[in-house]
Amino acid sequence: MALGDGRVFRNIKEESLKALARFIAVNIKVDWAGNIEFLNFFIKSLPNDAARNEFINKQSDNGATSLYMAFQNGKKDIVEYLLSIGADCTVCINGGWSIAHLACQNGNLEMLKTIIKSLSNDTVRNEFINKQSDDGSTPLYFACQHNKKDIAEYLLSIGGDYNVCQKGGWNLAHLACGNGKLAILKLIIKSLPDDVARSELVNKQSDNGTTPLHLACQYNKKDMAEYLLSIGADYKVCQKGGRNVAHLAGEQGNIEMLKLIIKNLPDDASRNELVNQHDQHGVTPLYLVFQIGNKDIAEYLLSIGADCKICIKGGWNLAHLACIKGKLAILKLIIESFTDDILRNEFINKQSDDGSTPLHFACQYNKKNITEYLLSVGADYSFQDDTGCGPMHVAASNGDLEMLKTLLVSSTDNAMRHRLINDRVAGGGTPLFIACQKGHLNIVKFLLSCREVSLQPLIRHNEDLVDFYSGNNRVVEKRMNVKLQNESGVIQYKDKTQISVLDIAAIMGHKEITIALNVYINKNPDKYRLQEKESQWERQLCKDFSIMMYSSRLHKKFQSAYESGQKEDRERSGYGEGAMTVYNLADTKVLRIKV
Prior knowledge:
The chain has a two-stranded antiparallel sheet. The chain is elongated. The chain is mainly alpha-helical. The protein has helices spanning 14-27, 36-45, 49-56, 66-72, 76-84, 99-106, 109-118, 122-129, 139-145, 149-157, 172-179, 182-191, 195-202, 212-218, 222-230, 245-251, 255-263, 268-275, 285-292, 295-303, 318-325, 328-336, 341-348, 358-364, 368-376, 391-398, 401-409, 414-422, 431-438, 441-448, 462-469, 474-487, 501-507, 511-523, 525-550, 553-563, 567-572, 575-586; strands at residues 458-461, 496-499.
């Protein structure tokens, strides 16, 4: 039986009940379960007004008073009684919710009116109805959130402030658009005094720059967006970061929303500006549509003037993105939209800031179908990135034999085929060297079967080799250190070491590759001797270059940077660039040794 049931106390003497009431007032929060007679008896048993006030306004652990609980349970008679004897209706529970917040959430308009009627003056009433919770929500905000149109209308009629924002900067229009409450939004707009107030409300930006129209586009509320545009919502406003309504509609794949926005633009210039707006990273609406692979929207944007040549930060264009995501159909759409061969070729072979082309990305992400398509429309497989890495190096590093074959099949010129197979990255590694290092036996066997393949070694600074291989397991690191101790100094001043494909396979512990290389060398002794002579000549070039530089100011600057460990300063000195020039000379047909 509930404590609020008076029958429990029928046989208890009055003096005992008074003592119990005093105990409850100090220690216990009671749910009176609607028993107003029992509550009245308890209140009268208290010795004075101070005790009575303490009792009726006692807060529970979550901050609730008797008035709050009576309100929550819909006990209007108890609410009126508590108000008549001094219950404080402004007390808030944890989180800053007042009774007005509760009424708006539950939709109890009559009890809310009872509370507001009991307030002593306009100032107190205004504070009560516009009280913000800890997250900045007002009772009006709650009424709109829970779609209580009658309560929202009542609060607006008695001074509910429509301009108050939550933490984060959302106002009532943001809330209505985020939740799709068109009727609520219209009610709020109708209550505004003039066009200025209406414009301020519908174009209010939150802390991250979001407007109500942004939210309508983001959440696919077409009717809401149409209404906002009809009453002056500004489609040009961008979020922090630079994204506009076209970005948001495109990212959601909502072509109808996008068409609605475009329809409301006054002229071609405005349309062009909207669809080609790029955010802080250079991303346009078309770029986002590419990302999700929506061909229909991409086609629509292109038809109204979207520029497919715009690049994001880093120099990526749409072809780079399509290659990463594997969006062949949408890539074809873009490429076929070019009417000029030169522009199309520039688009296909666009190099990013680090020199990577779309073909690099297609190889890196194992998109064979896109690789074949790019090669068929003029992709240049000879392009290298800033490290000298070409598509062949990427395929060799990934162990992707089919990709490697696809690239070679596309080359009908013998000189280009030789270059593809034997091109070096900045450190001197060929596709064969990389495959030996990575342990890709299938790639090694295939390249050894190509008559153009070269076994020329890599020549690197000792410290670069130590730095690079220190990230491997201890066995590999130990093998590299032994190699450096035994053979360092093949170039002047003992600062460089020659590493052959056989060396790197053995150091990395790739036994089967080591065997395959030995078999190849034994079967092709003349070719191996020729390449050994080429390597000796290359080392002599490096040595001559070092001797030439030794007495120069540039070498002294280089040596100072080297001894102080300032690797970047050493590279900036031009010394490393000179060494790469030597590599390039050694690899030209004119200087290649003939025996």
